[in-house]
Amino acid sequence: MSTFLGLIKEIPGISVDRFDGANLMSSILFLSHCHFDHMHGLSDIFFEHIAEYKKYLYCSPITKALLEARFKFKSSCVKEIDINTPTVIEYGIENNEKILICVTSVSAGHCPGSVMFLFERNDISVLYTGDFRINSTDLSKLKGLHYSIDSKLIPRTFSKIYLDTTFLSTDFCAFPSRQESIFKIYEVSRNWLSKDPRNVVILECSATYGSEFIFVELSKMLNMKIHVRNDVFESYCRIAQLSCYVTNDPHSTLIHACKKKISSSGLHCRGDVSNENIITVVPSVMKWRKKDTSIIGEWDKDKKRTFNVCYSTHSSLDELKAFVQYFKTLEIYPCVVKTDQEKEVYYLLNTIKNKVDGPSLVSQGYKLELPARKVSSKVKFKSKHFSSDDDSL
Ligand SMILES: [Zn+2]
Ligand SMILES: [Zn+2]
């Protein structure tokens, strides 16, 4: 759950993934993905505000489609940034000062449309990861985070990384890859469905959005659509990559992800299915805290016909280490810090950094800059200074 408050300290006038309070004074806004903890402040009124002040929200094309399902706004207020395509943006801040930045969005592997943002201005380069999960063996595939010299890709180094530290903890050292987790879900589902034609599988996903990768891959493997709730179906229908793998017809499939977690047992969309014909598959990470994640999945010891699968859309500790050590950075800002885990986050970030720089730089340490900087009352990011009105950006 993101605790980042939105302002990118190194470059004036930018807010990412927070749209309330001081962020309303920012000149340009960025949304990494459509999860509610990254959308504080987004509302119809917010979009009216940015339309009035001629500000723009930048995001991926899929994120824009998901926003359109939830909010009313003038399409020109939200600009799409294509993956791995450096985009130059000029905007104004106080005293008519013009700021020129280059933004590159990079696939974050977290949910449909999720991206990281690389902001570059003069000699400053800041990477904001948003929520991300990148397999350690895939780092060289992140084209936008490399220089190309003589057709060789060289990893960039950053002034600062705003890092998704959701699982920066020794409780979550390693996770199975998402492909491994989904294959486990597929095996359990296929076995169950082959035993009796009346059998069905419930996928119990912890949040309304976030399990789309499972739906797509499982649907392909079983050649069967996934039943989702009406409101979710309507959102997914806006995304070509998702729409053909889900259905709002409960009778057309044996795989159901339509249940709210708090609801009681049984399949509410199908009164004709008895409990004995249902298994529930629960993809989650929390059940694997401090456990051996090489097991990938196992039957629940307490709940009948319930199969737990280790599945994460955030990087594990090992993946975070690999990421930081591959790209290298002068500073790291942890974007997810629970108050009772501050010490561990400090310690682990220092350990990771130590491996990169050698022991001499460890003493610099990290400052958890919470809360975000106060915005001086003198600083006003006014619309009249905003100069970028190029819809092609
Ligand atoms: Zn997220
Ligand atoms: Zn259903």
TrEMBL record:
Could you give one GO CC term from the UniProt record? nucleus
Q: Does the keyword Signal apply?
A: no
Gene Ontology MF, one: endonuclease activity
Please list the residue ranges annotated as the DNA repair metallo-beta-lactamase domain. Answer: 242-337
> Record's InterPro entries?
DRMBL, RibonucZ/Hydroxyglut_hydro
Where is this protein found? Nucleus
Keyword list (alphabetical) reads:
DNA damage, DNA recombination, DNA repair, Endonuclease, Exonuclease, Hydrolase, Nuclease, Nucleus
Q: Does the keyword DNA repair apply?
A: yes
* Signal peptide limits: none
Pfam families from the UniProt entry: DRMBL (PF07522)
Spell out the Gene3D superfamilies in the cross-references.
3.40.50.12650, Ribonuclease Z/Hydroxyacylglutathione hydrolase-like (3.60.15.10)
Q: Return one Gene Ontology term, BP aspect.
A: interstrand cross-link repair
Protein family per UniProt: Belongs to the DNA repair metallo-beta-lactamase (DRMBL) family.
Name recorded for this polypeptide? Protein artemis
